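Justification of resources, computational component.

The compute hours requested in this renewal are based largely on the per-chain cost of generating structure records like the one below. Each record pairs the submitted sequence with a full structure-token output. That output is archived, and it is also reused by downstream analysis tasks.
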Amino acid sequence: MNNPLPILETQSLSVSIGGKQVCRDLNLALRPGERWGMLGLNGVGKTSLLHTLGGARQSEAGEILLDGASLAATPRRHAAQRAGMMFQDSDEAFPSSVMEAALIGRHPHLHAWEWESAQDEAIARAALDAVGLSGFEARSTATLSGGERRRLALAALLVQDPQLLLLDEPVNHLDVHHQIAALELLTRLTREQNKVLLMVLHDVNLAARYCDCLLLLFGEGETLQGPACELLTETNLERLYHHPMRRLPTGAGDFFYPM
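The structure output for this chain reads:
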């Protein structure tokens, strides 16, 4: 199918926080196989918009549809099976083992009072291995570094196995090697399992490398969306970041840097 139905869609969505307009009349369609990046200045509302799309906060106006039905009316358990979120902070309220933290991702797939099965544990072990945390299962989460906690949060999202992945700064706290490994893993899942990603990113060049489409938040409710190859221009980036930007063509694609 050349134009599959969107997993998540917004209709005239308006979001504001603290009197600040994040987006106004946003019409967005996230389809299987797409990798979206959300870019904008600090404080422009990227996290607030991501949380709204995931159902964690209410919008000011408009509607969000999950699989063509109102997200607000969708049972929470079903919504969590279809859409999952990786939050910006990975701190746990209570210490637990790495395995226990990863298995939290299975909760939407379990019935009330149902315990995780051997198959659930196998899924968690595979996810931990995929993010480079194999052998960490018995470790306390309190002993993990910031980067290891970030990779654990990604593993828990993989264990949840949603079709839509909403990720708030997924490479935060990660070194270059683990940044690339995480984004390559997410790209592979998108291609092989037809998932859709929406990632808040701060690195324009990672967005250029790993995103097919972009949503730019300019502030005061102004947004721009479309193919990354069309939106990543010096003009758009200077308007987005309020700073002069230059494009350097390379054999691996365009590289953008501040003046």
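Residues 8-90+161-258 form a domain with the Rossmann fold fold (CATH 3.40.50.300). The longest strand covers residues 20-30.
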